[in-house]
């Protein structure tokens, strides 16, 4: 999928170290603000990105070696945001994760899954594919005001 000619695009390559994440997050926040994205939408995108990137960093690779993953953000005409996360880690389809039991007592809940649930709730759609040894997660969100 190629972005429209008048779409705004930010592409980042981020090392798989939690300490490296703030620089990428800052770049995304600046990109969104520079394209007049509403503060509430910026906050939601930042939460989604933090959850996605943290999961990649913590779980994609079974070794302790250096790896990188890619984040691409596209703001299409009309304000539709596409967030694509891509990595060469272990295959993992977050769209097939069981939703957390929000009614269970905290001590009875399984660990994990809440972040991906939040991403699903904040976005309009979430699609996963595994192509040529790479995980690709596409998250779409209609922003509150056209950009």
Strand-residue fraction? 25-35%
Shape: globular
Given the structure, what is the number of helices?
A: 3
List how many beta strands DSSP finds: 5
Order of helices and strands: EHHEEHEE
Question: How much is the radius of gyration in Å?
Answer: 15 Å
CATH topology: Heat Shock Protein 90
SSE class: alpha+beta
Describe it for me?
There is one protein chain. The mean pLDDT is about 85. The chain has helices at about 20-35, 40-60, 115-120, and strands at about 10-15, 70-75, 80-85, 125-130, 135-140. It has one domain (about 15-140): 2-Layer Sandwich (Heat Shock Protein 90). It is α+β, with helices and mostly antiparallel strands. It has a five-stranded antiparallel β-sheet, with helices on one face. About 30% of the residues lie in helices and about 25% in strands. The protein is globular and about 40 Å long. Helix 1 (about 20-35) runs antiparallel to helix 2 (about 40-60). It has three helices and five strands, in the order E-H-H-E-E-H-E-E.
């Amino acid at each position: 999928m190629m972005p429209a000619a008048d779409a705004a695009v930010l592409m980042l390559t981020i090392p798989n170290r939690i300490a490296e994440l703030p620089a990428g997050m800052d770049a995304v926040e600046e990109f969104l603000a520079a394209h007049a994205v509403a503060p509430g939408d910026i906050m939601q995108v930042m939460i989604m990105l933090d959850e996605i990137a943290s999961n990649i960093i913590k779980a994609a690779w079974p070794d302790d070696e250096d790896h990188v993953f890619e984040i691409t953000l596209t703001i299409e005409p009309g304000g539709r945001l596409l967030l694509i996360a891509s990595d060469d880690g272990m295959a993992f389809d977050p769209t097939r994760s069981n939703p957390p039991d929000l009614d269970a007592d905290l001590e009875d809940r399984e660990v994990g899954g809440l972040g991906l649930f939040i991403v699903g709730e904040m976005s309009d759609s979430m699609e996963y594919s595994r192509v040529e040894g790479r995980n690709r997660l596409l998250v779409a969100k209609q922003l509150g005001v056209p950009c």
